[in-house]
Every structure is written in C-alpha cells, then in structure tokens.
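In this supplementary section we document a worked example of the pipeline. Step one takes a protein sequence of length 976 as its only input; no multiple sequence alignment statistics are reported here. Step two produces a three-dimensional model, which step three serialises into structure tokens for compact storage. The input and output of this example are shown verbatim.
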Amino acid sequence: MLKKSTLREIRSSLGRYLAILAIVMLGVGFFCGLKSTKPAMVATANEYLKKNKMYDYQLQSTLGLTEKDVDAVARQNEVEAAEGSVTEDVLFHYEGQASDKVLRFHSITSKVNTIHLMKGRLPKTKDECVVDHNLGNDLIGKKIVISPRNSKSTRNLFYRKELKVVGTVTSPVYLNFERGTTSLGDGKVSGFVYMNRDAFDTDVFTRIDVKLKKNYPIYSKKYKNYIDANNAGMEDILEERAEIRYKDIVAKATRKWEKNKAKYEKNYNDFLKEKADTQQKLRDSHQKLTNSKAKLQKKSKELNSKEKSLKSNLKKVDSGIRQVNAAIEQSKAAGAPVDRLLAQKQQLQGQKRKIQDGLLLVKKGKGKIKAGNQELKKGFTKYNEAVATVNKEFREAEDQLADAKEKLDDGKKKIAEIDKADTYVLDRNTNTGYACFDSDSSIVDGICKVFPIFFFLVAALVCMTTMTRMVDAQRTEIGVLKALGYSNSSIIGKYLFYSCSASLLGAVTGLFAGAYIFPRVIWKAYGMMYDFNANLKYVLSPKLSAAAVGVSLLCAVSATLLPCLGDFREVPAQLIRPRAPKNGKRILLERIGFLWNRFSFLQKVTFRNIFRYKKRFLMMLIGISGCTALLVAGLGIRDSIQNVVNFQFDEIQKYDYDVTFDKNMTAEKQKTFRKNNDGAYKDILFVHKNSADILHGDQVKSIILIAAESKGFRQFVDLHNHAGKSISYPGKGQAVICKKLARNYNLSVGDEITLRDDDYHQGKVKISGICENYIYNYVYITPDTYRDLFGTAASIKSAMVRTATGSDKSVHQSATKLLKRDEVAAVSINIDMRDRVNNMMKSLNAIVLVVVLSAGALAFIVLYNLTNINITERIREIATIKVLGFRKGETAAYVFRENIFLTGISALLGLGLGRILLGFIISRINIDLISFDTRITGFSYALAVILTFVFAFIVSIAMSRRLENISMTESLKSIE
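The serialised model returned by step three reads:
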C-alpha cells in the first residue's frame, strides 16, 4: 500500500517531480558535460597525433644536420623513429599574380609527422607539391611561383622555380589556424607546402624529428616526465653530432682551402713561366725586326750611292755623245772621214744603255726596299699590338691571381671564424598549436569548477524547498501512517524514493546527455580553429560519473531527511492535527508608515508574501540572479570576443595597412619613396618590424618586435594602459610590452626581459610600460636599443601607412598603387585582418549559445518549481479570492505579481554577478595570439534582463492554467 501511495504521489505531483529531475539533470549535465569536454578533446587530439606520428622532439643545429646525424639519433635507446627534414620560408606568388606572400616549405616524411591527404593526390615529381588545406581546394591544378625576391640560397634550394599544386593536406605540425611568423614578407606565414625530399637541392637537413617508443597520453604527467627523462639524452647526442659536424665542416673547408692554395700556387708558377717565355719571344721578335730594318737601311744607302754614280756617268756620256755629234757634223762639213767618230759615238751609246739599265736595276731595288719598309712597319705594329695584348693579359692574370690570393686569405680567415653549432632540443610544448590546444581545452575545465557548483547549489535548494513543502503538506498523512503502525524508516523511505528516484533519473539522464552534447558542441566550435580531421572521441570517467550521481543523491537525501526528521519527533496525534499557523510578523516596509500607507491592499499582500517567506525569497533570488548572471556572461563573451579586432584597430593600431619592402630602406631611399608616391597615402612611418623571441626564465615566446623612432609614432600606434592613460615611448635600453605578455610571465614595470632575434643574438631590456593590445604580441623599442641588443642596425623593411579617409575602397586603392613599386614586396591590410579574426571568433558563438540556453533552462526550472510550490501552498487562499469575485486576470496578477517583483530584484543583482563572472571567464580564455578585454555593452545588459523577464512570463503563462483548474469548493473544505 505504501508503495502504491508513493507511485500515486509521483503521478499526482508530476510537475514537482519533473522539476527535481530537471534541475538535477541540468546540474549533472552541465558538470559532467564540461568535465568530459577536455578529456574528450584531448583523447581526440591524442588519437590524431598518434595516428599522424607527431614528433616528441625537434632537433636543430645552426650548422645543419646530415643523414649520419639522423642514423646516430635513431640508434638511441628510447627512439622509435628519427627522420631528417628540410624546412624553408619562401616568398611566393600564384601564377598570374604579383603580390608576394610567404609559404613554409617542408619535405615529406614517412616516419614522423606524416601528412594527411584531404583532396587530390601526393606529389610524384620535383615540380609538384601539396599545400595547406586552409589555402583552399581551388588551388589544385594551379602553379606556385618562387619569387625572384628570395635570397640566392633560397632560390637555389629548389630544382624547379614553378610548382604545380596536386593536392591539399593537413599536418600534425600545424594543429591550429596559425601558421607562424617569419622575417620575410609581411612577417606572417600564409600556409605550408610539402614536397618530396628529392625536390630540394641540398644534402643538409634543417632539423631532425624524433618519435619516442612510448605513447603516453598527451599533456599527462606521465608524458611530461617521460619527455623530461629523455631530454638530457637528446641534448647529449645532438651536441655530440654538432661537434662532429663542426669538425667535418672545418676539415672540408680546410681541404678545399688547401686544394685552392695548391691550385693557386700552380697557376702562379705557370703564370711566371709563361710570362718569362712570352717576354723572351717578344724580345727575339723585336731583335729580328731591328736586324731587318738595319739591312734595309744599308741596302738603301748602297742603291742611293750607285744611283748617284750612274746618274753622274750618264751625264758624262750624254755630254760625250753631244761632243761626238758636233765633231761628226764638223767633219762632214770639212769632208773629213767620220768613221772613227761614229765608232766612238756607238761606243758612248752602248755605255749609256748600260747606265740606263743600271738605273732601272736601282729603281727596282728601291721598290723592294720600300716594300720591305712597309712590311717592317707592319711587323713593328703587330709587335706593339702583341706587347699590349700580352701586357693586358698579364695584368688580368695578375688581378685574377691577386683575387685568388685574397679569397685564399679570406677563406683561411673564415675557417678560423667558423663557430661551433648552437643546438636546440625542442619538445611539443614549443609547437604553437599543441600548446594552444592545451590551454584552450583547459578553458572549459576551468569554467566547470565554478558553474557546476552553482548548479548543484540551486539543485539542492530546489530539492530542499520542494521536499520541505511536500512533507509539510502531508503532515496529516504522516501522522495517520504512524498511527497505523508504519515505522519511521518506512515512511521516510516513501519520501526518499520520491526525491532519490527523481534525482537518480535526472543524474543519469544528465550524465549521458551532458557528456554527449557539451563536448560535441564545443568541439564543433573549436574545430574552426584547429585542423583535426578526426571524429570526436567521447570520454566518460567512471569516477566522475559516480561522484556526480553520488552528489545528486546526497543532495536529495539531505533535502528529504532534514524536513522529515523534525516531524517524526512529534507523536501521531499531534501530526494528525493541522500545524498551528506561524505568528504574524511585521515586515520592514510596514514600519515605514508614510510609504506603507500609500500601498494598496493587494500591493501590501504581495510585499508580505515576498518578505515573510524567506526560503522562497532566497531560492528565487539565487536562481534568477544566477540566470541573469549567466546571460550577462554569455552575451558579454560575445561582446568581448567578437569586437576584439575592432578594439585593436580602432583604439590601438590606427594605421590602415603595413608595407613590406624587399630591401633595407635607408634614409635616402625613404626620401625617394615619399617623393615618388606622394598622393598615394596621407602619412607613412618607416619602422623595423620582425619576429623575435622573448625569454623569461625557462620560457620562450614568439613576439613581433617593433623598432621605431618616437617622433610621430603615436599617430600610428596609441600606446596606453587599461585605464586609457597614455604610455611614454620607451627610451634607450627600455621596452614597452603588451599586457598579455606581462600577465603570462608575471612581469611588471621595472623588470628585465631578454630579447632574441632570428640569428640568436640576444640582450636584456628594462620594461618601461605595459600597454593594451589584443591581436598578436608586440614589443616596442628604439633603433638605438636594437643596435645595442643585437650588435647591428635595425633594417627598415616595413612601414605603417595611413590613408586620407580610411574607407575600404581608398585603402585598397592606395595599397594597389604601392604594390606596383619594385621595392614593395607585400602589403597587409588591417581590414582583411579584421575579417580573418572575426571569422575565427564566430566559432565561439556555440559556447555563448550553450551558456544562454543553460541560463534559460535554469531560470525556467527554478521559476516553474517555485511558482508551483507557491500555488500548491496557497490553494485555499487562491480559492478564497476567486470566491470573493477575482476574475481570471486579477487572480493571475495576484499570484504572479510576486514572481515579477522577485524577478526584477534578482535580475538587478544578476547584472553585477554577471560582470564578475564574465571577468573570471575572460581571464580563463587563453588563446595564444589574442588577448580579450572584459567589456559588456548596454544592449547586452538590457537583453539579459529582458530575457530573464521573458522566461518569467513564459512560466507565468504556463502556470496560469493551473490557477484556472483550482476547484473552489474542494480547496476550501480540504482542511476538514
């Protein structure tokens, strides 16, 4: 009979029973759901990293690593696999485009850090590659062009300068959306590329990825201890191999130098011998030409003398012939014989012919001498040309030998200057995605330390209030049961079964529903920030489940026993009689006469009911204020997170875009650039901007280092603290850091930090200010400080640009104009960054929705249960006012006016609690490259209050039917 009575009690008060079940289900579901989320996320990540063989260590050396180094590491006891890989940051552009961006190229590995093909196929030839799937599947089939702006060593690293994309992949090295920073381009890596090892023209590896034998769960203490235990061994083997590598490089360089030295000495000796032989040949040739010239001069003199003699004889012969001719004429006139004269004439004429023949021979001899002189002149010309050519060749050879000698000396000096390798043993914690996933998955775990306690508290109060009212209402029945002989334990068992069955059903339902829904929703939200191509693994801890169910039952048992124990001390005859009504008490408002007298009768009744029933008042206050606080926190998360990029670019970085140059912009080049681009922008500030590391203790953090002069800087970047007060630009030896760095490393003004550049030069600076910053981590110093820190002047390869209007159109037009300049490598527009971060922040909307829905469910359950109890306890009162003629609306207003008033008080209290709760939540959200500020808009405050009242009105509408169904006759005679 008692069992039947218990079941009938459940059926007759099903609303009250379901209220207990629902509040327990919500509390257990919220607790177990949030508590199961991190184990589920970590288990999923663990499975993914195990499947894709993510490295346990990355070994790096500034002198590079070889295949022998890989083999040596692979032979270590705890090493399962070791594999060398090539990594290089490269400026690129897509075919047909001009703007360069940065990709990080990797060689494909098979033993460690295996990639997962998302679409397409893996590369087969040297001119094929696969790319980051975040770059888009539409890249398949397109070409990536290695930019000529890259250094010569980078360009020579690839066999092909144009690569065809054949697929998209994910990589365990890149777990979240961030791809890292670089000293190239705009300082950010746009994505990654994987190619076959033989596509890289190098024998040296950039790093060695190491996978250990044991696969402990990630982030676990066992895994941390395991890594710590093997760290020393990794450092020892890497230092040993680095020393061998150093000696090999020195020995190889020395052998090459000695070979070059021997070659130089041989070339030098050959040059001296060739020079001596050539000079001797030239001397012999000159002597031969000189001898020929002397012979021609001697012959010329002889011919001139002979010609002179012949011409003199010719004159004499001509004179003799004339004399003979005159004698012949005289003899003929005298009649004397002329035979002798004719014979003499003939003899003279014969002599003349001989002389003339001799002159002809002399003329021919002179012609030969003239021709000989011409040939001799040509010979001297050729000789002079040969001398000039030889002298030029000798000078060039001497210059080449001098250069070779200088290179030998430089080579010897460089060998002496070769530094021993700096080695780095990096574990997974240095991987941005791995570290961020740990902190992001811990956010939910940290939140569940507060929220579930609140839910369990409300559940306990609901159970206690419900069971107290139930026991009080059945006081007469308890007395009858005791009078009939039922034991106290049997009667208590009835109420324990009522509360515990509701709690158990609610706990079990909430356990499985929460463990499924919460991890799934949050995983989907974080899936937009992480590149896991894996299905969520659900994890439900037996201990956690038992604890949640146990606490729920404990709350139910406690809430049942406490009100029962008081009644069971009384005898049955006393219990059967109705409880004497409590003494009436005046509330505080009644003592304020001038105020109390102005209230109407119904208002007075409302205030008396509110403040006299303190348990119900407290319960309503806690439940509804908690609901409003959750709504404020949820909506505040949206305000704080979704607007963070606007806070950054509206309040701090007030320029429109960054320009990255491919060369150092000296003062003269800056002046020329301003002159050539006048009108393309409003103002420009040239700065040094590069990635660097901040070292504090044993922690290393990547930051963006800005080195700029203080003049005009505030027009581009407004450095201020959380209160909005301006911060002075740092002086020499000082730095201003952002708030997130200060918070993470527990730094304050006056502390010292160590900065390290890409070449591992480092130095210390003192913190002069801590500024507000939301996107990325910045450190600001002066160029003088940079020079003192790193021993070299800061290269100016970046600039901040402000346009006239700052509109999307004008900014993009201005950036396009500058991109056409040869010295401009890339631009990064802040508007594009806004879109990028805003898209990322949308992934957290699911968490906001979970908080809002949970708050709504809590408010509805609390309001429904308390309203149900209120109506049950006041049935006779409600029946009475209905008999007195109260209409339907007046009766509802009489009852629900208290709920609305309490809702208003609770909502106001919840606004303050929500602000505190939001601050706690924001402090627990630790995303590596983003810092959130606790901000709530007036609209969110108003919306939280409005939603709270909406829930209250929904409950009122749902319970109004209950008021209509109250039977006046049955209720008024119930006491009899």
